[in-house]
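Re: [ENG-882] Designed sequences occasionally contain unexpected residues at chain ends

Forwarding the minimal case from QA. Structure tokens:
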């Protein structure tokens, strides 16, 4: 094959055509790279602005929540203070009622004591009169022994009259004493009933719900105050964190604007559509200008040598070509025009695909962007070294994009994206396979990839922190709601139990008051204290008809024929008090007592025929009684039994029960 002369005009023409095509392709890929950088910056700006708006709205919402929380806390505090004042007023009224009840109780005690003193004074007067009669009778008896026979009969007559008067007076005194004892017993019973009622009312007022309610309200107020303070601190902390994130996003936005200013020399446009239209118009103008070739010659060669998109070209256009096409053949110009038209359409479609592909693959390329970018730039530099040294014009250095001069002694090289290098390899068809895949899109440099990765990492950490804070707040809110619900449920249960207990106590008090009033309206006749020998006698109904409430007295077991329970008895020889189990049996007609309620070891037995009297120990004659106010006496032919009941009601029941078997009381038969 004949060697081609490098000085021939045809070789120069072919060299110029190839250089022009390579220059156009390089400029087009540079525009695509800048367009992708602009799109990335626009997307980042939109995301940062959206994030800033979101953080601003979040700060506004947090401030509103802080204000609402403060207002709610103040409102709750005011309501609790109002309820507390109302409860304090109620406590003051109840305290006044308790004082009135105490005054009534004191007046009742004084009245009963005056009545007792009056009755005892009458008994003492009768006793003195009886003693004077006894002294007169004794004196007459002494005179009868010492008087002469003539006066003996007269003294006997007088002694007989004095004896009858003494006997009558003695019987009258005994009746008066018995009536006085009955009166004292009735007064004691009345005093005990009224005092028990007053004490019960006073206890109910003193243990009123208001005091507990006040303490509960104060505790609830303190708890609400603490919760409001904690919530306020949490919201303030969240707001401060959000403000810090907002400041970081603003700094990031400022960095993006500075970077955009370095790339374009201007500020961000208002919308992305304006930049897309500018890019498309630039491609159309480039496609229309490239079909015109300059004249062959040294001047044209000099112009292509200077058209490197670098620092020495004063024109704003990336291509410096004249509009002359006189030296090109017609078929070559048409072919180039067809190629450029298809190239423009392919670049438009490729641009959209590149944008979508880069957005889709950005998450995948974050971790390996820096390493692959270095590998790709090394491969591109190596693959284009031979082309740059032989016939290609100098490629555009990355310093041109960033408006910086290249370092001294450094070979200029292109900073095209992966898609640009792939398009150049396809168009030139140098036979060299690129070492980088066209699907691996990355940012302009390894430093940009690291910045993107750092920003994404910060965004991810911010999102994770936000999610953690929201989850923590929801968890605390849920726990607080559960605690409040549990507290409310416990309070409702306590109030319900207290209300039920109050209703139950009121029913018991009303029932007892009715029975007492009925008992007082129907005064018991003296036959209540006489023995009852009928076999069909119902002991329980008899005791209940006497006015006793057997159901509420747990110290006594009462049936139709028997009565059982614990009593404390004083010993006969050794005056010691011991607890015994007493059994009143109307079938066996005995009143016996055992060591315990198993009734295995009998300690003593009293037959009904031996029981003479049952009465209250009003003289306090029992030695060292455990409870003198609950002591009563059972008198028999042989001895006097002192026993102590566990409660006033059980004492009254036992006395009425034992009286029904007091068959030794035969004085009523005379």
């Amino acid at each position: 094959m004949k060697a081609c002369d490098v000085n021939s005009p045809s070789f120069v023409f072919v060299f110029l055509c190839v250089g022009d095509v390579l220059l156009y392709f390089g400029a087009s890929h540079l525009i695509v790279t800048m367009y992708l950088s602009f799109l990335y910056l626009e997307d980042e700006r939109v995301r940062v602005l959206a994030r800033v708006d979101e953080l601003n709205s979040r700060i506004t919402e947090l401030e509103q929540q802080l204000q609402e929380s403060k207002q709610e806390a103040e409102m709750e505090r005011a309501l609790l203070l109002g309820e507390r004042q109302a409860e304090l007023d109620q406590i003051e009224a109840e305290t006044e009622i308790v004082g009135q009840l105490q005054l009534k109780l004191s007046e009742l005690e004084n009245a009963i004591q005056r009545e007792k003193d009056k009755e005892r004074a009458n008994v003492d007067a009768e006793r003195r009169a009886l003693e004077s009669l006894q002294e007169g009778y004794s004196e007459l008896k002494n005179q009868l022994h010492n008087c002469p026979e003539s006066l003996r009969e007269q003294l006997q007559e007088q002694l007989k009259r004095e004896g009858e008067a003494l006997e009558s007076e003695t019987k009258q005194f005994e009746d008066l004493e018995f009536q006085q004892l009955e009166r004292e017993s009735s007064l004691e019973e009345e005093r005990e009933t009224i005092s028990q009622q007053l004490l019960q009312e006073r206890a109910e007022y003193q243990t009123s719900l208001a005091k507990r309610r006040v303490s509960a309200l104060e505790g609830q107020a303190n708890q609400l105050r603490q919760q409001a303070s904690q919530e306020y601190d949490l919201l303030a902390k969240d707001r401060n964190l959000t403000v810090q994130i907002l400041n970081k996003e603003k700094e990031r936005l400022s960095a993006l604007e500075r970077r955009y200013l370095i790339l374009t020399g201007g500020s961000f446009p208002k919308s992305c559509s304006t930049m897309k239209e500018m890019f498309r118009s630039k491609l159309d103008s480039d496609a229309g200008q490239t079909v015109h070739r300059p004249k062959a010659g040294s001047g044209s060669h000099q112009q292509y040598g200077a058209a490197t998109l670098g620092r020495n070209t004063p024109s704003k256009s990336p291509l410096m070509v004249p509009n002359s096409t006189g030296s090109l053949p017609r078929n070559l110009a048409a072919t180039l025009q067809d190629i450029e038209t298809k190239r423009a359409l392919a670049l438009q479609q490729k641009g959209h695909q590149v944008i979508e592909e880069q957005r889709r693959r950005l998450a995948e390329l974050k971790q390996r962007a820096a390493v692959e970018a270095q590998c790709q730039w090394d491969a591109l530099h190596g693959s284009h070294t031979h082309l740059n040294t032989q016939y290609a014009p100098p490629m555009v250095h990355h310093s041109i994009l960033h408006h910086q001069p290249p370092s001294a002694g450094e070979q200029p090289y292109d900073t095209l994206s992966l898609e640009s290098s792939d398009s150049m390899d396809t168009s030139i068809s140098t036979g060299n396979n690129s070492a980088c895949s066209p699907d691996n899109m990355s940012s302009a440099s390894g430093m940009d990839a690291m910045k993107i990765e750092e920003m994404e990492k910060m965004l991810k950490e911010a999102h994770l922190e936000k999610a953690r804070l929201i989850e923590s707040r929801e968890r605390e809110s849920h726990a607080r709601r559960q605690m409040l619900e549990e507290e409310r449920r416990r309070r409702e249960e306590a109030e319900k139990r207290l209300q039920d207990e109050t209703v139950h106590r009121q029913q018991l008090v009303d029932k007892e008051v009715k029975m007492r009033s009925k008992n007082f309206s129907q005064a018991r006749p003296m036959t209540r204290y006489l023995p009852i020998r009928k076999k069909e006698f119902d002991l329980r109904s008899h005791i209940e008809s006497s006015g006793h409430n057997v159901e509420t007295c747990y110290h006594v077991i009462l049936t139709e024929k028997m009565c059982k329970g614990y009593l404390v008895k004083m010993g006969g020889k050794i005056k010691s008090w011991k607890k015994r189990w007493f059994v009143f049996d109307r079938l066996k007609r005995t009143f016996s007592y055992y060591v315990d309620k198993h009734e295995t070891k009998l300690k003593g037995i009293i037959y009904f025929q031996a029981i003479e009297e049952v009465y209250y120990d009003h003289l306090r004659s029992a030695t060292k009684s455990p409870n003198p106010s609950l002591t009563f006496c059972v008198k028999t032919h042989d001895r006097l039994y002192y026993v102590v009941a566990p409660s006033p009601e059980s004492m009254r029941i036992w006395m009425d029960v034992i009286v029904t078997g007091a068959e030794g009381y035969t004085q009523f038969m005379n």
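QA comment: On inspection the terminal residues look reasonable. Confidence is low (pLDDT under 50) at residues 289-329, 383-444, 520-527. Proposing we downgrade this to a documentation issue.
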